[in-house]
Amino acid sequence: MSTTRVLVTGGGGFVGSNLVRAALARGAFADIRVIDDFSVGLESNLDGCDVEVIRGSILDPSALHLAMADRDAVVHLAALPSVPRSLRDPMASHAANATGTLAVLDAARHAQVGHVIVASSSSVYGSNPALPKSETDWTRPLSPYSASKLATEAYALAFQSSFGLPALAFRFFNIYGPGQRHDHAYAAVIPRFAYAALVGEPLTVHGDGGQSRDFTYVETVCQVLIDAVLRRVAHPQPVNLAFGTRTDLRTVLDELRLLVDRPLTVRHEPPRPGDVRHSQADNLLLRELFPGIRPAPFADGLRHTVEWLRSRLGPLTARVHGEVAPSGSLSARTVR
Q: What is this structure's pTM?
């Protein structure tokens, strides 16, 4: 086992809790501490995990100071995700994502933490039409969320240059997988589609469905993050964390039809402001830094995601298929 003591900010969130569970399963780190105010993530995501949890915000200096003590590395995942959310409240996105990152980096610097990984986003490319998108391409954010993520990576690399804090800024590309929430206004497309398909509701597509994304399975992301921490990987520029695939929403719908084995009702609505048409990563730098990583194929990852969600929505999906669900068997936690 590594002797590395890790802090995961936002450890109760989708990626954070998957990372915690993957690291514990591998025995990757000496110990793991989480800081999360659970405004986005769920405390129950960490049920059964042998980790120390500090319930607090990264914007709270006292909570952050406590969380940062005696850590060797930080994986900074705490954020307010979602383009639409940032359009409704730009200041909240800026505070959590830009100011929050600055607070984490400054706390890490003062605590003499040896390595920091931060999560940026493919949305920073914005209106740049180039495909695939290379880390050296120009960026042009189209939303407050995208701008806040550009600030996230810029601050991390600036701290590396200015203060010698080893840093790695990953640009995440549409991560999906088990544990991703479908049940809030800003849910990502894969869990929204999977839930609607399983319970027989219409699937809402913003636009014509021809828009494409470089979907990345969360298990693969966690493998990269763990390897990056263990080997203390740092780099002077951002790194795309995706594998150069392009899957359009029509293909996602086709795959879901096969998985649920019935027709789907699709409802089209106008495109959303701030959304980009196509996204695809140039993954040359990622493969150079992490040559041993093999990504999960999209069809396999989607199948695991649907199976995970089906296992938690059993009574609801049973009703869709005309089966009789046991009375009172659907708990509040199950539908969350």
A: 0.91
